[in-house]
Amino acid sequence: MVISVAARRWRMCFSTQALNRFEGRRIPFCREAKIVYRVIGLCVALIIACAACAPAEGPKSMAESFVERYYVHADLPKARALAYGLALRKIEEEERLLEAVTRPAGAADRGVSFSLYTTRKMGEDKIFFVYDIIISVDRQVMKKRATIAAGRIEGGWRVTNFQEVDI
Question: For the whole model, what pTM was predicted?
Answer without folding.
Answer: 0.63
